[in-house]
Each structure stands twice: as C-alpha cells, then as structure tokens.
Amino acid sequence: MSATAEAPTPEQPQLTKKALTADHPTWCPGCGDFAVLASFYRALEQLNYPHESIVTMAGIGCSSRFPYFVNSHGGHFIHGRSVPFSAGISLSRDDLKVFVFGGDGDGFSIGGNHLDHVARKNVNLTYVIMDNQVYGLTKKQTSPTSPEGFRSKTDPWGAIDQPINPMRKLVNSGATFVARSHATQVKHMVEMIKRAAEHPGFAVVEILSECVEFHPGAFDAANPRKGGGFEIIDEEAHDKTDVTAAMALASEPWPGKFGVYYEVQRPTKNALEAGLITKARAKHDNSDDATLLKQTFARMR
Amino acid sequence: MPYPNPYQFMVSPNSPATPEGSASGAPKSINDVVVRLAGNSQDGIQTIGGFLARLAGRSAQEVMTYMTIPSTISGGPSIFQVRMGTGDILSSGDEADFLVAFYDHSYKNHIDHLRKGGILIYDTDHVEPELSPDYLAVGVPFTSATIEAVGGSAKEKGKNIFVLGLLCRLFDLDVAKLTGLIRERFAKFGEDVVRNTMLAFDAGYAWPAQNIREIYHKLATNDNDSGHPQITTDGNTAMTLGLITAGVRYGAGYPITPWSTIMETLRTELQKYGGLFVQAEDELGAIAYALGFAYAGHLSITGSSGPGLSLKMEALGWATMAELPLIIINVQRGGPSTGLPTNVEQSDLMQAIYGSHGDSPRVVLAPQNVEDCFYIALEAGRIAGEYSTPVIILTDQALSSRIEAFDEPDVDALMVTPDIDLTAKGADFKPYPIDALTRHAPPGTKIEGAPYPTVTGLEHDEHGHPSGNPAQHQKMTAKRRNKIKQLGKSLPRPEIHGDQDGDVLLVGWGSTFGPLREAVNRARKDGQKVGHIHLRHLNPLPPELERIFSRFRQVFVVEMNDQGLYGYGQLATLLRARYANPAIRSITKTDGLAFKVREILNGVAELSGSRYASVSGYPDV
Fold first, then answer.
1. Residues A25-80: pLDDT tens digits?
2. ipTM score assigned to the predicted complex
3. What CA–CA distance (Å, rounded) separates A190 from A205?
4. How many other CB atoms are found less than 10 A from the CB of residue A234?
5. Which of A173, A220, A226, B391 has the fewest CB atoms within 10 Å around its CB?
6. How far apart are the CA of A257 and the nearest CA of chain B, in angstroms?
7. What DSSP assignment string belongs to B560-574?
C-alpha cells in the first residue's frame, strides 16, 4: 500500500557531506551541536542511504533546528511532539530512514510522555537527544536534566528538583536500543549514530552536548581534554540484553560510562502492524477496496 | 405459541378503552410511530432499539433513532427512541406514541414525553404508574415473564428481547427478518445464548397484547422502491465509511465519547484496506501521528470530541502553517470541559473556526444527517487534498449514535484510490509558491538541483525554509487566507427549503436539519411564509447568503449553544459580524437534548413578536 523508494543498489551514487549540507547552522560558536551535526554527516556518508529516503525531523529548541542544517526531506514540528509525528512517517513508509533530533527539554519534559509511548511501541526510527542540561533557546531556565543546585533564571538560588536520569528513563521506556555519547567524541558519536540507524526498532542516542553560553563546563568531567575521563562500556563484559545490568550501569555516579547500555531485538510496531494487515487482507481474499466496501454495505442492507 | 401465558393482561381500569381518535375494534394501518424505550443502561434497550431500526431499514421503511446514555461507568437511566414509518422521517419525533417503561424512574421521567392518548407499556414487576385518562396503561410483567421463559437462573437478562418480541407482535414486524438479526448478533456467544434469547423473544411475541393490537395494527411500508437498496446505520459508522471511500487509510486518535466508535471502527476496518490506525498516548500525540502520515503523503485523519479538539489546537496551528492536508473530526458534546459528555450540543463552532493561535484560517464543515456524514467525509477529503489544508468536520453526539436508513452509496463511482506521487522534482520546485496552491513533495521524492524542502511551523519562503522577513510573513499570511476564500467562491449556494422569500428564514447547521425541516413544513401548513437553509459549509461560508437573507423579513439562526454575552448563538454571531444584518437573531438552547419541532416553532412565535435579540431555554438574569 505504501509507495516505495528504490532500494539501495551497488550503483547508488556516494552520498557526500557536500550534498547533505544545507544552511550554515545558527548555533552559538562553540556549541556542542556542531560536532553532532558533523558526526551525523559522516554517519550518513558511511551508511550511504538513498538521499531522498532520508527524513530528519525535530521538535523545538536549539538542537531542534538540526534539520534545517541537513539537506534532506524533513522539518520542524511542535515542541515535544516530533517523536509521534516521525512515528507516523515511519509506520506508513517503511522505505524511509527516519531520524528525529531534539534536546533535553523537548525529549524528557514536554515530550516525555510521547517518548515513552513511541519507545514501548518500538516504532522503527532513530532518535538523537542532544542534552545540554539547560533551556538555551529561551536563555537559561532549568531543564529536566539540570543538576540540583544549578542556578538559572527560574532557579536563581539553585535548582531544587531532582533531575531525570536519562539512561534510566530510556532503558525503562521500552526502547530497544539505548546509547550514550559525548559531543567532544566524534568517532564514538559516528559509531553510535550508525548503530542506532541500523537497529530495527526504536533506537535512542543521548549525546551530552555543551551549551557554552548558559551551562559551560557541564560535561568536563567526561572530557579528557578538560581533565575528565571518557570511559567506554566494555561490551564483552556488559550484557546489553539484560535490563537489570543496563539499569545498574545507568545508576553509576556522574559522569558514568558511554556506549550502548541496552540493545535487544523485539518485533517492531512496523512489522507487527504489517502482519495484521497481511492477515486481514488474506481473510478478505485480498479484495480490492471497492469490493471490500461493497461487502460492508451489503451487511447493512 | 409454545409458551402458555400464566399472567393476566392488565389494562388500567381508569384508562379509556381506546386512545383518542382510533376506531374501536378495527385494526388500523399506521404509517408513522414513535416508540420510546426507557430503562437502565445495562438493560440492553439500545440493543433492541438497534434491532428495530435495522429491521425498519431492511423493510423499506424510513427510520430515525435518538438515544441518551448516562455518563456513568455502569448503570443509570438510559433511553432509546425509534421512529419508524413511511415518508420522510426527519426527526426522531417530539412525542412518543408508545412509552415502554422498565422502572419507576423510567415511567416518572418520561411519561411527560408520551403524547395524549398514547400507550404506556410498563413492567408490572417494577413500575406502579399513576393512572390517568391521558394515556392507556398496559402492564406486562417483563421481568418475571422473561425469567419464566428463559429459566430461573437467568436473573433479569433477556427482558429487552422479551419486549422486542412484544413490539414485534404489536406492529406486525417481520418476525423472520428480526429473528435473523437476533441470531446474527448473538451467534458469537454460543448456541445456549441464542436459544435463551429466542425463548425470551417468543415469550414476548406470544404475550396476549390483543387490546393494543386492535389500535395499532400494521406499520405501512414505502412502496416507491427507488431501485437503490437501503442501508441502515448510525452517523459515526457512515462517517467512517465515507472516510474509507475518500481514500483515508491512515489515522490516529485517543478515546473520548462520542468520538471513540469512529476510531474503533477505523482501527479494525483499515487493516483489510492495507491501512493503519494508531491509538495514540494522548490527543496531542494523536494529531502528531496523523500529521506524520499526512507529511508522508497519505490522506489521514484524526478526531476527538470538544476537550480533545482543544488539546489538538497547537498542532492544528502547525498544520495551517505547514499547509498539510488533514481531516479532523469533532463529535461535539455538551461543554465546556467534561460538561455533558453523552449529550448533544453545538458549542464548538468558534473553537473549530478560530481555535489555535495566530491567524490560522481553515475549513469547517458540518453534516446534516446520517447520510450526509458519509458524503461530507468525501468532501472533506477532496478539499483537504486540493487546498492542502486542515479540514474540520463538526458532527455531534446526536448524529453519532442516531440510526437512519438511506440509499446505498455508489461505491464504484465514488471510491478514491490512495496514491502517493513520488515523481522527481527539478530545480524549479517550490512547495509554497506565493501565487499558487501549495503542493508538497512527500519524502522519497528525488529533488534535483535544488535544496530539499522542509515543513515547518516557522514562517517560511517558497521552498519551506524559515524566513522572518516581515513582508514575507504578510504575503504568506495572505496566501493561506486567500486559498480558503477561493474555496468559498467555489461552494454551492445553499438551497432554500419552503418559501423562497417571506417572513422568516430559519438557518441551521448540523444535526438540527430534520427538526428544522419539519418545523418549516408545519409552519407553512399553518399559512406562515417560512423558509429554511442549512449550512454545511461553515468556514468559509457559501456565496450569496446576503442575497438569501435579504429576501426574508427576519432571519432566525437555530442552534444548540448559548446565546452568549451579547444575545446571539455562535453561528448567529458570525453571520451578524459577516453581513452586519440586524434581522439575524437567535433561537438557542443548551439542555443537552436535540431540538424538538415544537421548541423551534415556539421560538419563532416568541421571537417574531419580541424585541429581544434571542430566545433560549433559560431566562435572562
């Protein structure tokens, strides 16, 4: 029923950074999001999907401007709700590669409910959350991941609410691929984005991406160049399919570890719905639309 | 009959032997009867109402039903009214000819709705009516007779079917067809249930209700066979089938009464057409999914009832800005807030036209009866696609559940085949041209020699890329407004029913169509010069309304919402603003019940001689 773009072939032209580049980003100089964008270009070059099949969507916030800086189909939906919007794209068009970008406010606060539900449905898409632990576009209010004691315009005496632990929330949400990276680690980001894109199901990558304007130094503890340590998960030692192990890893003290926390294979909603369609169509002899409708009317006579 | 009857047929001693106007003894053919069944929601009276309505529809009779259910989880008073007969049945009837009362409260609350000379049939196990010469009271022990017929362990189940048997006998309904319908309905519960159901039916059918039969004998059927088979269904089902015919294969929603049955049916029906309906996590998620489907290239729908539409408003503004086609159904109910969730009101008009933020013009349509629920869905689909715009369909609780019979639509002629155009676009491709209608290139479309287009809620240039340029915002705002105006010019002029000029023009929208028609017919019989127009297109308005209004001395807008701070209902307020015509006034009410013909005629009489702006069910303070 859905239209299908051509599948990648060996003759497919190489997708280049140049072809993927759109407007120059409007982010502040030094923003961590530049590195995320560069890593995304590189991941796409390596994945080499047909250019027209790539869709980049986003919600609202600094990081959600991301799709404007990628030359692809896509756009910019309303605050917090880009995940169900993108799920609509993915569920009805299996030929597309759907990427969603957003920040900690978009993903964990206003869109927190949508994130949980699209994750539990295991809709096939890739969600990149660029976490800077502050509301930047609106000029420094407390975010759901701002640490306790963080001084902002809404908490001038220091934040008093307990922050969300993104990894614990994401592992718990039902997402089938949960990973974490750091905007200063380009190679690691490229690997995480690629693995998320190739994962069948709801794949989410949280990237710590510093806001140099309103929360500088937030992630220095995990940046070797600033005296911190970037510790990568040893996938030989960590059972990614064990939710308890993933939660234990997610509960480690700040700044914790980086890499794939959780990765399981579970049927996607895309596949399950397709199965229901095949069954329902077969039950009705794969009849054409007009025949099916006439049968329904006949029962109402 | 296999079940001997141990009970006496009880007729109240004070009742007249026959109701007013009927010939004594001689069976009489009637062509229009209104039966009101009153009981509790778990008694299954909606079920028998549905059987009667479907039977009538299958017997070339016209039928219209009306129901109320309580907004409690279980239990609570409930009614089902069915009007059957020949000719144009336009409303479910002001007054009942028959009241079937299951309980004391059913009797007390509804006896005033029984016409003078009507017949009260009551359950002697539960009801002790006050006897009155105004009606004929017939006692029948529904409960104990059913227990007797079905067996001791059945508790009170099946008495609805007992009553159905009784009614079937009273009106000489087609037993074979009716028992066929019953078997169809209960077969899935197993042979035991079917057998018990038939036992209850037979017991009711065998009940010696001879006295009543002498008065009401046989319901006439229409003999003018149009050649089209009739189908019988409710408004929400008709809407669903209209959507499928329009090419809708994708949608999303969140449960809320009375919208839910549309999503339930689409969830189960769309699969066999290769489509998909998502039950979303909330209303905001639902419209987001639906817009995702639309962006991906599908004609998609979402819907809700009043409070749910409010939650969708932010995304609706986005859809207006991004100019994506989308059908949004609002099954209106009493408001504000959770208000009267199971009663009817038409108070979401302003929300539908002006809700959301910024200048966000959109299309708003309203179906006028069950059949029109089907055709308006088709029209909404066509407009949404052609003008790349959200289209809101304002239906209501009364239409959603009301059952009517109408000509089966011509599927071959109407069926729209869904199609996604992925033709490659060149360097000249602009999805948002300033001087032409917006045309999207869905993802999967190759774009050669130009940047890929973006969809966004930010003001944008012709390629969809953000632009904060003041002149650009002014131009794009005008573009979005002008396409809706352009649609307005292409709409058909409303037809005037009744007098083409005269004293009073009644203007209505939505489910008030039938009662308004009947009111005009009755007023004209009384010698008044009255016309009626019914607006299916509420935003934009159809052309030539000004000219139509000018032919009548007074224009009364009849609608089920409040008269507002300044004395006018919602549509009347809009029409007064649009046409600056002081002849336009309001007849409004907000009691949660469908307009009765009498209420409309009283309103017209009162308003014609009144200096006040409007009449409504409640006095001014």
1. 999 999 999 999 999 999 999 999 999 999 999 999 999 999 999 999 999 999 99
2. 0.97
3. 11
4. 9
5. A226
6. 32
7. SS--TTTT--HHHHH
pTM of the model: 0.89
* pLDDT digit string, tens, across residues B566-613: 999 999 999 999 999 999 999 999 999 889 899 999 999 999 887 777
Beta-sheet pairing, A125-131 with A202-208 = parallel
- Are the C-beta atoms of B396 and B511 separated by less than 8 Å? yes
Which sequence spans correspond to the domains of chain B?
A: 9-213, 231-414, 422-489, 497-615
| Residue entry with tokens 């109408």 | B406
Structure tokens at B41: 């929601």
Chain A nearest CA to B49, separation (Å): 15
- CATH 3.40.50.360 for domain B9-213, yes or no, is no
Yes or no: domain B231-414 corresponds to CATH 1.10.238.10: no
Q: Say if the Cβ atoms of A300 and B231 lie within 8 Å.
A: yes
B414 and A CB contact within 8 Å: no
Pair A13, A52: CB distance under 8 Å: no
Is the Cβ of A55 closer than 8 Å to some Cβ of chain B?
Answer: yes
CATH 3.40.50.920, domain B497-615, yes or no = yes
The DSSP H or E segment spanning B401 is helix B397-401
Strands B537-539 and B326-332 come out as: unpaired
Chain B interface includes A53 (CB < 8 A): yes
Assess whether the region B9-213 and the region B231-414 belong to the same CATH fold.
no
Predicted confidence (pLDDT) per residue in B339-361, tens digit: 999 899 999 999 999 999 999 99
The two counts, helices (H) then strands (E), for chain A are 10, 7
Tens-place pLDDT, residues B238-249: 999 999 999 999
Number of continuous H segments (helices) and E segments (strands) in chain B:
21, 25
**Residues 6+ away with beta carbon under 8 Å from B526:** none
